[in-house]
Amino acid sequence: MASDLIYLVFGVALLLAVVLPAALSRLALSAPVVLIGIGCLIGLLPLLGPEQFSPVEHRAFTEHLTELTVLVALMGVGLALDRPLSFRRWRTFLRWSVTWRLLAVTMPLSIAGVAVLGWWVMGLGPAAALLLGAALSPTDPVLASDVQVEGPGLGEQSGSLDPDGDQEGSSDEDDQRPGDEQDGPLDEPDEVRFALTSEAGLNDALAFPFVYGAIYLATKGPVQDWGLSWLGFTLVGKVLIGAAVGVLVGRVLAKAAFAAPRPSLRIAERGEPLLAIAALLTAYGLAEVAQGYGFLAVFAAAMTLRSRERGHEYHQQMHGVVERLEQLLTLSILLLLGVSLTNGLLESLTWRGVVVALALVLVIRPLAGWVAVSVRVPRQASTEQPMTRPERLATAFFGVRGVGSIYYLAYATGQATFPEVAELWSTVAFAITVSVVVHGVAATPVMSWIERRRQPPTTGAADVGPVLDGAA
């Protein structure tokens, strides 16, 4: 790839990072839509010469750039979530009920739906069809920022609700030792944004077993030759290892940052936000060495860091650094994607691929998401805020496809040979473009409409968020 193009893309990305947020703040148009369009225009410029960027030709570069971008995004998502999740408190898991349903129902249905259409409509082989489904199934933590939570709160109220829904007053705080994990601020007041953010934080790692399944189909043959080891280690073992490594790294770094015996080690007091990057790299590297899922380890490490001194402003400082880095990387990838779209990436796109991509964005994900969020959970088994019908529709619809899909495809095609690789790249690129345009244009008006339908929160000690109008 020409070095001139690299300089141009990163230079334009930095410039747009400064200009776009303010310029688009009041428009029903997301930055990714604009960036892909600008990238398409850059790709048409003759001054760049015949050598243009292509994720197929520059697969290794694409894999590593998208891998880093997803990792940074996962760190940002984990630090942004205000809703607690603790192994020691079962009720915190109940508050994540909508997340577990999206992961257990929506993602498998999406993988199956796309894989079946890939095999039946596009005529892909079983390995390629499964890879297409796995790559396009996760909600992207990078491009879904318009429908995600904004960042960590500071917990301004003097008391907050514990995971059981009881008010924490000064007496409870007095019983806690300094440095113990805190649950305040309690919750995300927006169930839609929480659901989409937490789903994006977890489903990237949970799609990986199915990417490996496609690789095994292409390299090891029939399922009976590797199915049991895939089920025991690839699907379960690597998930457990990744989660354990992430929690361990997060606990060690959080204790050092907030409660180290030596003042020089208490990084939070100095406000040095680069700890977030150190945690990201450490968790990912250690998890991969231990044969676990590094994506999951990074998210778990971020969540564990966030659980320590939850109301401390240091979390905002770390999140700010991660957000800036994520923004630069994302802008660069979108510009490069736009460049490649006008330089042959869509040459192998067929009408069948168009049908599958449109079906995913407009039918498969919305229906699979609706099934998950419409499951009636007994009130005593869940403490989450009830969702109105518009909120359920929005949660089901906004399954944004993006950078993660590019990474999975780049990774898998580097591990195995897929004869349909050109068609896979064209279909995935088209699906991402459709998602960026449809979800990007719809995000601002839909989320604004939902927020207007919410009644103002009532005051009182037991408030946990806005009161939603309409039946759940």
CATH class: Mainly Alpha
User: Which runs of at least 5 residues are low in confidence (pLDDT < 50)?
Assistant: 154-186, 458-472
- Record the strand order, biggest sheet: 1-2
The main sheet comes to:
2 strands, antiparallel
Sheet/helix structural class = mainly alpha
Outline? globular
Mean pLDDT: 82
Question: What gap, in angstroms, lies between the N and C termini?
Answer: 53 Å
Rg: 22 Å
What's the number of extended β-strand segments?
2
Helix tally equals 17
Overall number of domains: 1
Order of helices and strands: HHHHHHEEHHHHHHHHHHH
User: What fraction of the residues are assigned to beta strands by DSSP?
Assistant: under 5%
User: How does CATH name the architecture?
Assistant: Up-down Bundle
**Share of helical residues:** 55-70%
In the CATH scheme, what's the topology name? Na+/H+ antiporter like fold
Briefly say what this structure is.
By secondary structure, the chain is mainly α. The protein has helices at residues 3-23, 31-43, 59-80, 90-94, 97-120, 126-136, 170-175, 191-219, 227-259, 267-270, 275-289, 294-307, 314-341, 351-373, 389-397, 403-415, 421-453, and strands at residues 160-161, 167-168.
Structure overview:
This protein has 472 residues and is an all-alpha fold. The chain has one domain (3-50, 58-137, 186-453): Na+/H+ antiporter like fold, CATH 1.20.1530. It has helices at 3-23, 31-43, 59-80, 90-94, 97-120, 126-136, 170-175, 191-219, 227-259, 267-270, 275-289, 294-307, 314-341, 351-373, 389-397, 403-415, 421-453; strands at residues 160-161, 167-168. A two-stranded antiparallel sheet has the order 1-2. 50% of the residues are buried.
